[in-house]
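Dear support,

I submitted the protein below through the web form. The confirmation email said the job was done, but the results page showed an empty box. After a refresh the structure appeared. I'm attaching both so you can tell me whether what I see now is the final result or a partial one.
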Amino acid sequence: MVPKLELLIVDLAAKILKKNIKLFAMTDSRSGNVIHLAAYMNQTEVFELLLPETEYLARAQDMNGDLPIYIASKMGYVELIEKLYPISEFLNGRG
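What the results page shows now:
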């Protein structure tokens, strides 16, 4: 049986943080980081891994100018929005 991607994200994020915190900031081809992916997939557990050194990732914009909180908002993930709100900034005026 192949494990679901959603179940692997938290485990993978924890391993990345343990190995090299700089890897956590890597981006995909659309400039999204692991926080953007977690927001899109409603993986609230990933945000429990955030350290003060990595909170800046929640304020990073992707290629569309979207912050992770905007992605969570578009998807309707209220619990995730509540976790992101205290550490997010509304940089592109679409708050």
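Response: this is the final, complete result; the empty box was a page-load delay. The chain has a mean pLDDT of 80.
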